[in-house]
Amino acid sequence: MYTNILVSSEEGITKITINRPAKLNALNKVTIEELHEAFNSANQDNQTQVIILTGTGEKAFVAGADISEFANFSTRQGAELARRGQELLFDFIANLETPVIAAINGFALGGGLELAMAAHFRIASENAKMGLPEVSLGVIPGYGGTQRLPQLVGKGRAMEMIMTAGMIDADQAELYGLVNHVVPLPELLPLADKLASKMIKNSPIAITSAIKAINSGFTEGENGFEREIEEFGNCFGTEDFKEGTRAFLEKRKANFKGN
């Protein structure tokens, strides 16, 4: 079905794996379009409660964008490339109703780090390296990197990472708050599964509301506190809220249906 990605689903978890090992899983137009389609399908699948995104092999999550595709672009084409990519994939993932974990299994550079930052949170293997080297090519991050990196690590650290075009290792990324956990490579996907399984025990409709409320606080022109109040109130009208409170009072585990 797909040329550049692999998709598998089991027990409420859909894994999407970028599969271009010869190119260190670099993003090109086809890969971005396939990722959009896969994320959209998983989000619409009632059986999928968590999505895990990773890369094939032991070297790279995504080592960047496929520069050969846009090296000769004009100003207008460059702007359209960024706009189209943000709409189709990066903003799409960030605002997805289904939670997304990025499991960074190696190099996450340029568009690869931007892709990981679009996920709802990130974990990394010990061999991972992360950076936004775009200024070394005479351009800047165009898939949300100048916005999401400061939100995650702070303005000063983001300025340094972007302006030096340098890489940081997994331990430094954890110290910065860019990733939540660092583990040996063989433990990366098992940890992603473990975190996903914890999330699956909770109300999927409440998790979706939480994603919307949290994202609202980082969206210009929106009041995150007001969005939280709205989403909090919406939860009271769901069957999951009734089941969750009933289960708590009856001292049993809740059986959430996601409605």
- Stated plainly, the CATH topology of the largest domain is called 2-enoyl-CoA Hydratase, Chain A, domain 1
Q: Provide the CATH superfamily of the largest domain.
A: 2-enoyl-CoA Hydratase, Chain A, domain 1
* CATH class type of the largest domain: Alpha Beta
Please state the overall shape, judged from the principal axes of the Cα atoms: globular
Count of DSSP-assigned helices: 10
Short structural summary:
With 259 residues, the chain is α/β, with parallel strands linked by helices. The protein is 46% helix and 17% strand.
Describe the structure.
There is one protein chain. Helices cover 46% and strands 17% of the residues. It is α/β, with parallel strands linked by helices and 259 residues long. It folds into two domains: 196 residues, 2-enoyl-CoA Hydratase, Chain A, domain 1 (Alpha-Beta Complex), CATH 3.90.226.10; 46 residues. Strand 1 and strand 2 form a beta hairpin. The protein starts with a strand and ends in a 10-residue tail after the last helix.
Task: Sum up the structure in keywords.
single chain; 259 residues; alpha/beta; 2-enoyl-CoA Hydratase, Chain A, domain 1; 6-stranded mixed sheet; 4-stranded mixed sheet; 10 helices; 46% helix; 17% strand; globular
Annotate the secondary structure layout:
Blueprint: E1 5-10, E2 13-18, H1 29-44, E3 50-55, E4 60-62, H2 75-94, E5 100-104, E6 107-109, H3 111-118, E7 121-125, E8 129-131, H4 145-153, H5 155-164, E9 167-169, H6 170-176, E10 181-183, H7 188-200, H8 204-216, H9 224-235, H10 239-249
Parallel strand pairs: 2-3, 3-5, 4-6, 5-7, 6-8, 7-10
Antiparallel strand pairs: 1-2, 8-9
